[in-house]
Fold this sequence. Notes:
Blueprint: E1 2-8, H1 17-31, E2 54-59, E3 66-71, E4 83-88, E5 108-110, E6 113-115
Antiparallel strand pairs: 1-2, 3-4, 5-6
This protein binds copper (II) ion.
Amino acid sequence: MYIIEQGKIPANYSGDIPRFLEDLTARMRQLGPQLMKVRERPVVKDTIGNIPGGYTVVRVHFNNPGFWLLHCHFIFHTDVGMVLVLKIGERYQMREGSGSFIATSSSTRTSGWFWF
Ligand SMILES: [Cu+2]
């Protein structure tokens, strides 16, 4: 995941997040293919910090079919929508599960829970 743009939502939006997202989306669409060249040597990230009242635009190259969870690390923020599931690929491209949960990456197992 590469950061395309980060910032604070300008005060002139007065909390009108839908209007801000509409304008941001329009601006990103205008940039189109240039988005691939925003940064010559982007840093690859899997976790991104966001300032309060801020936003981040990322570019992601998905090459692993499955369901991916994007979430805020403040679990109570899921209540306000800071979580989403992305379906990448089609069902036939996804691997069958083994029937048991497999820990990946650097997760630490504590009493059956996995913390990422
Ligand atoms: Cu959050």
